[in-house]
Write a structure and sequence with these properties.
It is a single chain. By secondary structure, this protein is mainly beta. The protein has strands at residues 16-17, 24-25, 29-37, 41-50, 53-55, 61-62, 65-74, 83-90, 119-126. It has a five-stranded antiparallel β-sheet with strand order 3-4-7-8-9, with no helix packed on it. Strand 5 (53-55) and strand 6 form a beta hairpin.
Length: 128
């Protein structure tokens, strides 16, 4: 039976950071991608927005965060576009997560926000 059938109290977490254990419940999150692709090459930008949340102490607020990710690929025609080299950087603007004063971990919530710093990657793939 769901808790409402048992007259159990419900908890409203929207827009809050629970603290211990770390878990933010933003009221609004948005992911969007702009992509330009051709058979031999392409580039994309992904934006990720996380709305501000209030910490459980009632004093501190973790602000809005916008992360930007960029990815590009090359796929040579002489291999029938089966080989693809992809390079990308997550958090291109090097945006740090908001500080969390009530979190147990390293003063931020790793379950909701990216680790501090940028993350670059390369990928080589082949399609059969």
């Amino acid at each position: 039976m769901p808790p409402s059938d048992l007259n159990a109290p419900t908890q409203e977490y929207a827009g809050t950071e629970r603290g211990s254990p770390d878990q933010a419940y933003p009221k609004f999150k948005l992911n969007g991608t702009i992509d330009w692709s051709a058979p031999s090459y392409g580039i994309s930008f992904t934006g990720r927005y996380i709305a501000a949340v209030d910490e459980r102490d009632g004093v501190h607020r973790m602000g809005n965060v916008f992360y930007g990710d960029v990815q590009l690929y090359l796929s040579p025609g002489w291999m029938d576009h089966r080989l693809r080299l992809t390079a990308g950087v997550n958090n291109i603007f090097d945006r740090d997560p908001p500080q969390c004063f009530t979190c147990d971990s390293a003063n931020f919530d790793p379950t909701t926000y990216d680790l501090p710093g940028q993350f670059g990657y390369l990928r080589l793939s082949y399609g059969f």
